Amino acid sequence: MDIIFRCDNTECGKTASEPFALRIKSEAWMDAQNIATVFCPNCKSTLCPQTEDTNGTDHPGAA
Questions:
Q1: Which of 19, 34, 52, 55 has a CB 3.0–4.6 Å from the CB of 7, allowing a cystine?
Q2: Backbone torsion region of residue 51, taken as left when φ is above 0, otherwise alpha when ψ lies between -120 and 50, otherwise beta
Q3: Could you read off the pLDDT of 20-47 as tens digits, one per residue?
Q4: Is the dihedral of CA 13, 22, 30, 57 positive or negative?
């Protein structure tokens, strides 16, 4: 499963075309306990982790 970090700041979507999202492949991270805090480059808010199944279904907060 890939992990996706999305910005949930409502103001971020207003200043950018859409809220920032960063996808990290499962091979690049060990587990949710051993991953750095990721920040939005647009609004500097902490990005919220989500996991994605191989079929493309998002699972908010599952990480």
A1: 19
A2: beta
A3: 889 988 888 777 677 788 899 888 999 9
A4: positive
